[in-house]
Design brief:
The structure is a single chain. By secondary structure, the protein is an alpha/beta fold. 46% of the residues lie in helices and 16% in strands. The chain is globular and about 55 Å long. The mean pLDDT is 96. Bound molecules: phenylalanine. Phenylalanine binds next to strand 3, strand 5 and helix 11.
């Protein structure tokens, strides 16, 4: 734990053990260079506190890049609430309220929203004590609601740009797209892909999701253990992080990777591994910025939903096209190109 904090390139780590619930609240603030830090709250059970902190730190760094590339005036952060496996459902609201109080005490240093394991309803609870530093409350509580669909819209825009480069056409009609994870982003992405005429396959580990998308919508379900060697045009990771590693990359039979999950690469070298295999990688924090653009746009800049959706699509298309051009002309990975663009905005003089 000490080493993780000592060697981290971010600014601040806040740790709180929430005694009544037995949960650890970890807030990693990576950068406030562009403004107050923002990032979602991830709530899940981790094997230990160290892996929870590591996750928070990595995710916070990705938020810095995501927000820098989207042109938003926020720095990057992330919160993890590492809950015990047996957390009683009725202990949850008070845990979220205590967490909200902590956010309020931070006085705007950290702004949050939903992420894996939290929802717009949870944001309402957090905002009871954490307002005004909470994005994505339900519309009835005055928020913009879930950002999952906006994130999916941005991923779709990224897929179109990548398709144009690889297949010569933006249209996703008849493209075989494999969506890993059918949560709030993956599920919405499937809807968009179906409307665009793509041939959608999916994988999930939850029985309920499998029933809905396979039996309800008639989509092809791929067993979770086979997901990395299924032949498809586009692979869309929309579940956990670190799914692209030496082993999985060597199995992939796709031409493009573009998905909503954060931190898809297990290590920086994986970007080069994808390039070597001739797979066009749309960097995760570029194409999954839709949620952040949507929430900040609607709740800070008072954009209409229509404007927010247009800004998501156009912003991500432009950013990704520029990054693909840069990668090509400089003969570097798309990940390195994305980093370069973000770092320009983050450099001390700018
Ligand atoms: N958790 C989402 C993300 O990773 C949405 C979000 C963005 C939440 C910004 C809060 C702040 O992009």
């Amino acid at each position: 734990m000490e080493d993780l904090i000592k060697h981290w390139k971010g600014e601040t780590v806040i740790t709180r053990f929430d005694r009544p619930s037995g949960a650890w609240i970890l807030i990693a603030i990576h950068s406030t260079h562009l403004g107050p830090a923002a990032g979602g709250t991830r709530m899940k059970t981790y094997p230990d506190v160290v892996s929870a902190l590591q996750d928070a730190q990595r995710l916070a760094e990705a938020m810095t890049y995501k927000l820098a590339l989207s042109g938003l005036n926020f720095g990057g952060a992330k919160a993890v609430i590492a809950v015990p496996e047996n957390l009683a459902p009725d202990a949850r609201p008070d845990l979220l309220r205590r967490y909200g109080k902590l956010i309020r005490q931070l006085g705007g240093l950290f702004n949050t929203g939903a992420d894996i394991g939290t929802s717009a309803t949870d944001m309402d609870l957090i905002a009871e004590t954490g307002a005004p530093y909470v994005f994505g409350r339900t519309p009835s509580a005055g928020g913009a609601g879930s950002s999952g669909a906006a994130t999916a819209l941005g991923v779709l825009a990224g897929m179109e740009v990548a398709s144009e480069r690889i297949f010569g056409a933006r249209s996703l009609k008849d493209r075989r797209v494999l969506v890993q994870g059918t949560g709030s982003v993956g599920g919405a992405l499937i809807d968009y892909l179906q409307s665009a005429g793509a041939r959608v396959m999916f994988s999930d580990v939850e029985e309920g999701a499998i029933c809905h998308f396979r039996d309800g919508l008639g989509l092809e379900c791929v067993p979770a253990e086979e997901v990395y060697h299924i032949e498809c045009d586009i692979f869309a990771p929309c579940a956990g992080g670190q799914v692209l590693n030496a082993q999985t990359i060597s199995q992939l039979k796709c031409r493009v990777v573009a998905g909503g999950a954060n931190n898809q690469l297990a290590e920086p070298k994986d970007a080069e591994r994808l390039r070597q295999r001739g797979i066009l990688y749309a960097p995760d924090y570029v194409v999954n910025a839709g949620g952040a653009i949507f929430l900040v746009g609607m709740e800070t800049h008072s954009w209409t939903r229509h404007k927010a959706e247009n800004m998501v699509t156009e912003g991500i298309q432009d950013a990704l096209s520029h990054i693909f051009d840069l990668a090509l002309t400089q003969d570097i990975t798309t990940e390195a190109a994305a980093r370069q663009v973000a770092e320009q905005r983050l450099s001390p003089g700018s």
